[in-house]
Amino acid sequence: MNINETHISLLSRAFEKDPMFVYFISNKKDNNQTKNLIRFIIKRNRLLDGLILTDHTREPSYVAIVDRPKNLRSVSIRAKIRLNIEMVLLIFQLPFHVLRFLSKYQKLSFSSAPNEPHFYLTMIGVDPSYQGKGIGKKVLREIHEIAESSNPPYPFALDTENQQNVAYYESFGYELKDTKMIDGLRIYCMTRPAE
Length: 195
Fold this sequence. Notes:
Keywords: Transferase
CATH topology: Aminopeptidase
Mean pLDDT: 89
Strand content: 15-25%
Strand order of the largest sheet: 1-2-3-4-6-5
Shape: globular
Radius of gyration: 16 Å
Largest sheet: 6 strands, mixed
CATH superfamily: Gcn5-related N-acetyltransferase (GNAT)
Domain N-acetyltransferase: 114-195
GO molecular function: acyltransferase activity, transferring groups other than amino-acyl groups
Protein name: N-acetyltransferase
Number of domains: 1
Order of helices and strands: HHHEEHHEHEHEE
Low-confidence stretches: none
CATH class: Alpha Beta
Number of strands: 6
CATH architecture: 3-Layer(aba) Sandwich
Distance between the termini: 28 Å
Helix content: 40-55%
């Protein structure tokens, strides 16, 4: 399914109160910074052959962005060049402190993730008007089925800055592997074994 501005707006609304987005988006009234970051995450996911799940083009209730197990050596040179161009363009769209934070976050993510190939849940957002109706659970189950049906089945990793999410993800078989701090923001690193 094609991802469009409706999906980006949904993720922007879903992450409006997320501790990380609150922390680094300098102008809270202007969510263009949030949308620019989400656009970059989506482009990066596409260039690296990731998964994007959603239920509708015009009126989606959720969007999930998942990185597949990959070997960067298998990514085409063209995709690497395009990704580098997108990263350079991001320099002009986000403040320096956000870019610095994202660089630290990426290093932290890699250091806490499984050493073996794994899926990584980059973002999962449910439209605020649909929250509390079991959509997040349905999407997580669908994502886990994809990982379990791959040959071989792969583990999953995710990071969250919201302490309330830890118990939620534990109910899906995730384990808290590490808690890290970046510039005073606590990051909970979680993994789920292959089943």
